[in-house]
Amino acid sequence: MVCHSSLYSISPLDGKYKDKLNEVRSIFSEYAFIKNKLFVEVSWIKNLLKIKKIFNIDYSKKEVFNFLNNIIENFNEEDAYEIKKIENVINHDVKAVEYFLRNKLLKNQHFFHIIEYVHFGCTSEDINNISYGLMLNKVKKNIFLIFWEKIAEFIKNLSFKYKDVSILCRTHGQPATPSTLGKEFFIFYMRMKKQICQLKKINVLAKFNGTTGNYNAHYFAHPGVNWIKISEKFVTSFGLEWNAYTAQNEPHDYIAELFHCVVRFNNILLDLNRDLWMYISFGYFKQKLIDREVGSSIMPHKINPINFENSEGNIGLANSLMIHMSEKLPISRFQRDLSDSTVLRNIGVAVGYSVLAYSSFLLGLNRITINKKNIDKDLNNSWFILAEPIHTIMKTYRIKNSYEKLKTITRGKKINRDIIHNFIKNLNLPHDVKVKLLNLTPKDYIGKSSILVKNI
Questions:
Q1: Structural domain of 341
Q2: Which residue among 4, 5, 172, 431 is the active-site one?
Q3: Buried (b) or exposed (e) across 233-245, using 16+ Cβ within 10 A?
Q4: I want to staple 186 with a disulfide (CB 3.0 to 4.6 A). Which of 41, 159, 312, 394 is the partner?
Q5: Are 296 and 302 in contact (CB under 8 A)?
Q6: Which of 103-117, 172-186, 308-322 has the lowest mean pLDDT?
């Protein structure tokens, strides 16, 4: 068996969809996680070397800093495998990184006296929470915001493109007062835009304060050093917000906040996916024909809305994971339990399913074109929707039982233009009002839907 082949992957993220998730993999792979942890460890020893109350260095700082920087810059798969070998023996991922770094320093006799300061005062969570913070900062900026803004911009452009295209609306799945296709798209754009603004405001937090968050070991060993100030400066140097008050683990409230925002955006996209799926089934949109593709194994005519279906399915998987993480991660027994560790390792999985959903949705949008003929046909077969404006005008002119009269001739009945016009002609209304009603068609009864898009 060729174990490294994607054919033997358990997860489709590393199998069927492997080539679509290279950017996610570059952030959340085991290799990336190990490198982040090593980066934090190296950054911490470099930070310590700057503290004069601890080190009295008699050699060039540039020499040791270059050596440490090269460990990160030249990090490769062989190094990652070496760390995994150590981990397999000691059964601790962060300690394995520490031992790897110590072994590197042991190769240069000038650095012997700083070796014991590798991982000084740290608990594993100090290293891990910053590593996850680095990953989440990247995914927020380089994946979520990029995809969300691309999707929102696409929807906005469709809004303006179709702002004057009348469409029969549906409430409870039944024909209802018309709108324009552009205005209906714009609703989704505005919902998405709000979540984009919310996501931008969410800061990624990290802590660096020792075993139970009190700098116990730091101050016991070096009481003259301002470790609290050093912690703040160290955390913010990574572009993260410093969390000053924690137990052993950063409480992950910001991850819950971030994922709740992602779930909201995903649900908006899910809502639009389902609407587009239905519009395609009504024939409001035509799907682009790809000659080489097959829609069904037995029905040659099929062109299925698979991109919107794939997007819907992947949103469900992403949301279920992120909802669980949002509920689980902020809860820890006493000052720390380890139940968050295995959950955190699945963040990349949730992100991966989200990315698949976004990619499928965009592919689906690029493959549909409006079928105005079918849209207009639906409107022309729905004269009964004019019961609303007729009834409203009747109320305006104090005609009694206006609702009941319209209900009698329209509810559950097949109504056409002639029936509606005969009803209007027999109403006790001013001539100009009757003319206004007689000139009204389902296609024209769109209120200010076009103007709403234009104004915004």
A1: 125-213+237-371
A2: 172
A3: ebbeebebebbee
A4: 159
A5: yes
A6: 103-117
Least Cα distance to 71 among 33, 97, 109 occurs for 97
Same domain membership, residue 344 and residue 278? yes
Burial of residue 272 (CB within 10 Å: 0-12, 13-18, 19+) is: buried
For residue 287, what is the enclosing H or E element?
A: strand 285-287
236-242: average pLDDT: 98
Query: Please, which residues have CB within 8 angstroms of residue 384's CB and are 6 or more apart in sequence?
Result: 175, 410, 413, 415, 420
Say what the pLDDT of residue 431 is: 96
- Catalytic status, residue 4: no
The model's pTM: 0.94
Select from 91, 120, 149 the last residue of a domain: 120
Alpha carbons 290 and 50: distance in angstroms, whole number = 62
| 287: β partners | 368
Structural domains of the chain, count: 3
Tens digit of each residue's pLDDT (9 = 90 or more) over 370-421: 999 999 999 999 999 999 999 999 999 999 999 999 999 999 888 999 999 9
Query: Which amino acid is located at 279 in the chain?
Result: Y
Q: Which of 11, 26, 60, 296 is catalytic?
A: 296
In a domain, 1, yes or no: no
- Judge whether 296 counts as a catalytic residue: yes
pLDDT of residue 1: 46
Say whether both 242 and 290 belong to one domain. yes
